Amino acid sequence: MVVLAVFMVLTAIALERAVVKRALQAEEDGLQLLIYSLLAAVDRDRSGTSLTVSADRLFEPGLVTRNSGLYALLYDRNKQAIWRSESITIGFPAIEEIGLGEWKFQTIEHQATPYFRLGFAIQWPDINDQLQRYDVVAWRNAVDYFEQLNRFRQTLWAWLIITTILLLLIMYLVTRWSLLPLKKIGLEVKAIEDQEQSGFEQNYPDEIAPLTENLNILLRREQYQRQRYRNAMDDLAHSLKTPLAVLTGLGDRETMNPEQLETLRDQTERMNQIVSYQLQKATSVSDIRITKPVDLVAVIDKLVSALEKVYQEKAVKVVRELPPRMLLRMDEGDCLEIVGNLLDNAFKYGRRCINIAGRMLDDKTTSLVIDDDGDGLADSEIEQILNRGTRLDEATEGQGIGLAVVADIVQSYNIELAFSRADSGGLRVSLIFQAV
Amino acid sequence: MRAIVIEDDIDIQRQIVERLKSEGFAVDSTDNGDEGLYLVQEYPADVAIVDLGLPKMSGLDVIKKIRDQANKIPILILTARGRWQDKVEGLDAGADDYLVKPFHHEEMMARIRVLIRRASGWSDSRIVCSPVSLDTATQRIYVDERELDLTAYEYKVLEYLMLHAGEVISKTMLTEHLYDDESDNDSNVIEVFIRRLRQKLDPEENLKPIETLRGRGYRFTLRRADQPQP
User: Fold this and answer.
1) I need a labelling partner for A216 at 20 to 30 A (CA). Which of A200, A226, A295, A360 fits?
2) DSSP labels for A322-378?
3) Per-residue pLDDT at A205 exceeds 90
4) How buried is B44 (Cβ within 10 angstroms: 0-12 exposed, 13-18 middle, 19+ buried)?
5) Chain B residues closer than 8 Å to A341 by CB
6) CA torsion angle for A379, A382, A386, A392 (degrees, to 10)?
């Protein structure tokens, strides 16, 4: 746009300059012609020592009509005007020195009126064949010229501005029109991100169609791969856990000697924990780019109603201080996993009351605090939880995989997790999520 | 007590069935959802143990169909998928509790007992209808401070009657909840158990804990100390 505007202005300036130059040249040529015709009418005067112009040989009517705007003067070498055209009614200043045979064209302001002046120096033999120097000067009133030039300039710039605006408008429309498919692509990408559609569905012009088609193929492949991966993990979980369940069941029988029984139990338990943890880790999504926002409040409601069923006998009172909606950009399964494990602990260790408080800290962060009224943890135990590595096989036996999974997911989503003492003396778990 | 086990892995199914039987349960088992659904509909049981990963009809669908028929049987789900998403889905569908595979059989039994008690409105493992008290966890029975020595079948009859204290329990219901196979039941055997229970619970015949309603069945008459939950 800017380039176009600059280009248009530069064109106009160049055009104007060319026109002015040509017009000036035309004026100069006209005056030159006048001087030639004047010279044709020049003759020696009666005394033979000076020159004069014979009116009958002068065919330029402008020179004989008073105040016609066209004037001519003839000067001798002393700069004395020896002849003036009949059109002259005012005085004109003498011309400064001109080289012999040289044309001198000037635009001069005289008595508040612009004039073109052309001077020419000649030599003419006198009666004694002595060459005498003379200056021929022609004046032309330039008022009309400048008026015309101004009119030309106004027209030029007016048209230029109109054309530029029109061109810019057309360019804008053309750009908008040609970028329309890209805007559509942008909207579709957002819809894909929000999982409202699975690929690009609109019709696109031939230039862009290959791009969207290829992106569709990529998306389909990616979705297929991810699905396949998850299915494989799921199948693996099922096929590994079923034999583990059989082994565990075997360990529950009392037909073996206690030592063997102990070993069998320990080893199956360990295998189970490792398998569970690695599978949880593998199936956790933690790819927030193509996930639909999840409502934390809905997740909490779901979990509380499920846990109230499981811990029905404890009749734990759950106090919720939550806004109507808390949107997070994370996979729903991962969100359920984190909050589910933490709430499960609260139900397990709490006595009568669990407090769940959530609020938006600002536009970007959401906090969730879960308090139970159980025995809580000693400071050293809290430290132990936090310092524990996320690799389960390094963890001490007997610790559930729940918190290890939580720690892992929390880390992959950049969520802040902290444990402290609740006002009721129980455990307080605080989470700070990045909101949508 | 009668339990229905729907589990497609034969080894696990066998282990669960053996364990339940050793705890005095009458057990029906199947490896597929269709038959499981049929069993739940046809044989009134006290608890159903449903594996979520069943072939053909999934465990989740089985649970939904059971609940669609307004059947309130307590359901314990077994799942290999330990994610909360799966647990919540199962509980949402109508299950009452879950166990993630692999699990210990003690834990399974504890949960089953809780579910059965809960279904009858008892919130504690001790069922008390003064002066009789029965502990479902330890399977011990006291009348005041005196501990009773009951056979496995006597215990099963008393537990069932006490769980449904105040309700009329027909002989058919009792046999169905006590025996695996209906063909070998004999209503006379129930009468024998009831007579023996009356002697053991109330040797002086001043409590009269079990009432016979002619042609209808039996009723445990002692009032619950613990009011059932609504």
Assistant:
1) A295
2) --S--EE-S-HHHHHHHHHHHHHHHHHH-SSEEEEEEEE-SSSEEEEEEEE-S----
3) no
4) middle
5) 84
6) 130
Question: Closest approach of chain A CAs to the CA of B13, in angstroms?
Answer: 9
A340 touches chain B (CB under 8 A): yes
Angstroms from A208 CA to nearest CA on chain B: 40
Could you tell me the residue range of the domain that residue A266 belongs to?
A: 209-283
Query: Helices marked H in B125-224 — which ranges?
Result: 152-163, 171-178, 187-201
In chain A, whose CA is at the least distance from the CA of B98?
A310
Q: Identify all chain B residues contacting A310, using CB atoms and an 8 Å cutoff.
A: 91, 96-98
Average pLDDT, chain B: 86
* Pick from B84, B91, B118: CB nearest A337: B84
Min distance A372 CA to chain B CA atoms (Å): 20
Asked if the Cβ–Cβ distance from A306 to B105 is below 8 Å, we say: no
Angle at A82 between CA A79 and CA A83, to 5 degrees: 125
**Does residue B225 have a pLDDT over 80?**
no
Which CATH number characterizes residue A349's domain? 3.30.565.10
pLDDT digits (tens, 9 = 90+) for B58-115: 899 999 999 998 888 999 999 887 788 888 989 989 999 999 888 888 889 999 988 9
**If you search the block for the tokens 């059971």, which residue do you land on?**
B66
Instruction: Work out the percent of chain B whose per-residue pLDDT is above 90.
Output: 27
Q: Which residues, in sequence order, are bridge partners of residue A266?
A: none
Domain count for chain A: 3
Q: Which of A166-180, A204-218, B17-31 bottoms out in mean pLDDT, i.e. has the lowest? A: A204-218
Chains A–B, number of C-beta pairs less than 8 Å apart: 92
User: How much of chain B exceeds pLDDT 70, in percent?
Assistant: 94
Nearest CA in chain A to B86: A333
By mean pLDDT, which of A273-282, A420-429, B8-17 is the weakest? A273-282
In a domain, A162, yes or no: no
Confirm or reject contact between A301 and chain B (CB < 8 A).
Answer: no
Residue that terminates a domain, selected from A242, A260, A283: A283
Residues of chain A positioned with their CB less than 8 A from the CB of B80: 237-238, 241-242, 245
Contact B12 A242 (CB under 8 A): yes
Task: List, as one string, the DSSP characters of A152-188.
Answer: HHHHHHHHHHHHHHHHHHHHHHHHHHHHHHHHHHHHH
In a domain, A174, yes or no: no
Measured between CA atoms, the residue of chain A closest to residue B121 is A313
CB contact residues (below 8 A), chain B span 97-156, against chain A: 97-98, 100-106, 114, 118, 123
Contacts of B112 in chain A (CB under 8 A): none
Domain match, A241 and A304 both: no
pLDDT for the residue A391: 39
In a domain, A391, yes or no: yes
Final residue of a domain: which of A283, A318, A342? Answer: A283
Token pair, residue A82, equals: 């020896």
Of B91, B106, B118, the CB nearest to A306: B91
| pLDDT of amino acid B64 | 93
Q: Determine, for residues B102 and A250 on separate chains, whether the beta-carbon distance falls below 8 Å.
A: no
Q: Does residue B229 register a pLDDT over 90?
A: no
Joined together, the tokens standing for residue A59 give 């065919």
Write the DSSP symbol of residue A93.
P
Better-predicted residue by pLDDT, B77 or A364: B77
Q: Residue A393: pLDDT band by 50, 70, 90 thresholds? A: very low
